[in-house]
Amino acid sequence: MVRPPPEITVEILLRAYRFGVFPMAETRSGNSLHWLDPKQRGILPLRGFHLSRRLMRTVLADRFEVSADRDFAATIAGCATPAPGRPDTWINPLIERLFTEMHERGHAHSIECRRDGELVGGLYGVSIGGAFFGESMFSFATDASKVALVHLVARLRLGGYRLLDTQFVTEHLTQFGAHEIPRAEYKLRLAEAVEAPARWIASPDPAALRDAIRALADEP
Length: 220
Description:
This protein is an alpha+beta fold.
């Protein structure tokens, strides 16, 4: 008799992330998940993040109302929405349910960008110790996802995080300094980061946040 696979729970997910393994669905309509442990892992340096002066001005101009953890469910739904050049996604209903539960338990977080009260961009990810695992982002307005990413990095730096895992490297992320490292090196960095003390700051002091954003543009 073939036993059915064990049900994936939040506890299993957190344990997997600690070892550098993460889940994806084949398609939006897929009913199952598979585990990935890439030979090359994408990371985005928290020191040495590339922020252009143009984007910094956009972020500081407050063109978007930026918040954190205000509507996680809507953010992950936005990430799962088809977009030009992306007719399908790997975020199926099971992913949405599991990560929303992770958020409710304080292990997953979102950054949201709104314009005139409407959610137009954002991202979400998992937080364990001093490691943040970026899962997905979306943008329905120019620069919305970029602004969300800048706010994420600023908050991670303020909170003492050590690792921002992007899983894979896309052309969109390379402009910010994302690059690949070998699996073995990633696992060493991960082991240190998940044990490091860090604090997720959903609502930082506005002045401290603006200073942290400006500091990103000042780094080489």
